[in-house]
Amino acid sequence: MSRRTDKVASLLQQELGSILEKELPRSGPIVTVVDVKVTADLGIARIYVSVIGTPAEQAASMEHLHEQTKSIRMILSSRIRHQFRRIPELEFFEDHLYEQARRIEQLLGGIRKGKGAADNE
User: Fold this and answer.
1) What is the CATH number that goes with domain 3-96?
2) CB-based contact 37:10 (threshold 8 Å)
3) Which residues make beta-bridge pairs with 89?
4) What is the tens place of the pLDDT at every residue in 81-106?
């Protein structure tokens, strides 16, 4: 990524996080913007979000984001319109990194417990 796309991605991540927190609050799972990747022409922004909740809540949250993409883009446009000629199209993707990290921690915890029991024998 170039410096320009990095700066745009960082700005979008900050603004989208604020929008999801304050402008479009929802009760239920926690939704955080984990990463934003912008194409070289700044036409498309791929937003990776982490949803902490049950699988049903995660699916509902992602569906809600897909339904609200246009309104999120309009809010984003009103906030940063002076910095961009054209606001990029938004694409939301679910990031499962948190779940994977939690699973790894569980596995490592199980190994540590097993090793501790083997050392005591």
Assistant:
1) 3.30.300.20
2) no
3) 44
4) 888 888 899 999 998 776 777 778 88
